[in-house]
Amino acid sequence: MTTDPADEIAAALARLRGRRPRPPFPGDGHHHPHAGHGGPWGRGAPPWADPAQARFGGPARLRLLDALVAASGSLSVSEIAEAVGVDQPRASRLVQQAAQMGLVAREPDPDDARRTRVVLTPEGEGLVSGFRGRRRDAVRSALESFTADESREFARLLAKFADAWPRE
Questions:
Q1: If pLDDT is split at 50, 70 and 90, which confidence band does 36 have?
Q2: C-alpha–C-alpha distance, residues 17 and 88, integer Å
Q3: CA 165 from chain center: how many Å?
Q4: How does pLDDT run across 13-29, given as a tens digit for each residue?
Q5: How many alpha carbons lie under 13 Å from residue 131 in its C-beta half-sphere?
Q6: Which residues on adjacent β-strands are paired with residue 105?
Q7: Largest Cα–Cα distance in the chain?
Q8: CA torsion 143→147→149→154, rounded to 10°?
Q9: Three-state SS letters, 140-161
Q10: How many CA atoms are closer than 13 Å to the CA of 9, on its beta-carbon side?
C-alpha cells in the first residue's frame, strides 16, 4: 500500500513540534532577537502569542488536539502531558481551556472512577481536520519541485529524524 509522502511529512512535522525547545521568556536570562520591539515576542509575533486574539491556537494547544486524534480515543491528562511535551499542571490547564471552548470533553475513566479521560468533541475534530488539511496543503506546495522519488525519500528521512529526536 502506497502512502502519500505529504501525509507522512505532515505527521513527522507534528511529532517534531511537540519536542522543540521552549521559547525564551522575559526574565529568564535569554536574549530574544525581538526583545524590546513590541513585547517579548517582538514585531511579527505569532498570533497565538497575543491573548487579545481570543482564538484557540498555540503550539501546545494544537499538539493537545493532535495527540487526541493520534490516540484514536480518550487520553488521561498524564498521557496528554507526555504526548504534548508539557508538565501535568500545564496539560490540565490546556484541557480546561479546550473544554471551555467546547473542543474536548471529559468523561469518567471506566477503570478508575477517580480519574477522567479526555476526548475530542465534534467541534474539536473539525478544528483539527481543518488545521491538518492546511498543513498537508502547505507540505504539498513545498514538495512541488520534488520528484516523486525525492518526496518519498524526504518523507522517510524526516520520519526517521522525528522518531530519533530527543524527548527532553
A1: very low
A2: 18
A3: 16
A4: 776 665 544 443 333 34
A5: 19
A6: 119
A7: 54
A8: -30
A9: HHHCCCCCHHHHHHHHHHHHHH
A10: 19
